[in-house]
Design a protein that fits this description.
About 75% of the residues lie in helices and about 0% in strands. It is mainly α and about 100 residues long. The protein has a domain at about 30-105. The termini are far apart.
């Protein structure tokens, strides 16, 4: 009986190791194409509405990811991005957002 218990206890301890412990999937790293697509989509909202202020927060995170995944694209639009973040007028934001979209092509 003791040997059966020892065998079952040993199997119970080995099961997590054999199954990969947590079983959680690796977090996916977004591709540069996905980041560019997300940024274009969010910029299009600015083109359509002229939205500013906290509405631009999502663009900040998109731009940070763009700098990591596609630094050459980020560098190409950085000046216009910085201007967009500071723009006070909706029409200026619309123009700058459209310019950034064209720069991401």
């Amino acid at each position: 009986m003791k040997s059966l218990f020892a065998l079952l206890a040993g199997l119970a301890l080995m099961l997590p190791v054999m199954t990969g412990c947590s079983g959680e999937a690796e977090p996916e790293v977004p591709t540069s194409a996905a980041i560019i697509g997300s940024m274009k989509s969010n910029l299009q909202v600015v083109v359509d509405t002229g939205e500013g202020g906290s509405g631009l927060d999502v663009l900040r995170s998109d731009f940070e990811e763009l700098q990591k995944q596609a630094p050459e694209k980020a560098a190409a639009v950085e000046k216009d991005y910085e201007s967009l973040m500071k723009a006070a007028k909706p029409e200026d934001r619309k123009t700058l957002a459209a310019k950034i979209i064209a720069g991401l092509e």
